[in-house]
Prior knowledge:
The structure is a single chain. This protein is an alpha+beta fold. Helices cover 35% and strands 21% of the residues. Among the domains are: 5-81, lambda repressor-like DNA-binding domains (434 Repressor (Amino-terminal Domain)), CATH 1.10.260.40; 162-252. It has helices at residues 5-16, 20-27, 31-39, 48-61, 66-77, 92-100, 105-125, 153-156; strands at residues 142-144, 150-152, 166-172, 176-182, 187-194, 199-205, 208-212, 217-221, 224-225, 235-239, 245-247. The strands form three sheets. It has a five-stranded antiparallel sheet. The longest helix is centred in the middle third of the chain and has 21 residues, at 105-125. It is elongated, with a radius of gyration of 29 Å. Residues 79-101, 128-135 and 138-152 have low confidence and may be disordered.
Amino acid sequence: METGIGATLREARSRRKVDLAEVEAAIKIRIRYLQAMENEEWDVLPGGAYTRGFIRTYAGYLGLDGERLAEEYRRGAGPAAGERVPRRVEPVASAARARGSRVPGWVLAVVVSLVLVGLVVAIGLSGGDGDDGSSPPPGQAAQQDGHGKRRTAQSERKAAVVQPGVAVSLEATDEVWVCMLDSDEEPVVNGEILQPGAEAGPFRADGFTASFGNGEFELTIDGRQTDTPPSSSPIGYEIDSGGDLTPLEEGERPDCT
Length: 257
């Protein structure tokens, strides 16, 4: 796809008399991506919002109108230049609720009946363990606490389910390309473009690494909204098991390729 963007970037760089190594050091975009933009080899670049972010950053450094060139790429690129059709990333819990809604009515009726029978039997067996001082039924251990009140072994066992790891979710405030890996380096958002208002997560793991095509998103960690400043350039973060957020350099960010 010939757009003229590459020639515009190359000619502007020649006028400024800077080589690609100087550009890479200044704006932290790899030389192979800079060459790909100048040669219009769009399939080398990640595509979509990520590529537009590269164009804006490179053009701005050269004193060009980065927004205009990025918009020209968007109009001329389309799906053929790497634009992936966005889809809403739904939490696993939503799918589970959807499956649960298809349980037949007769199954629910049987389950309710069994629960009621179990309650009746339990009440009958525990009838001797009241507040009148009578002895508890055989096999039900009883202890005296410091106030002389009877406590059964059963009442002392309290279920406490604690899910390990850190919970992360995000919401796009503008179109943004997202690649997020969990602590096992498995993608939870696999290089997808989220439209404004789209949500992903919550995801839970011992930690995450993430790349974003720009800073147009809100990140929530363990229910706490983080301070992620907006940026027109690609950015990335590491989230550790304690929920701490650390920026990643360009070479350290995941790319979901």
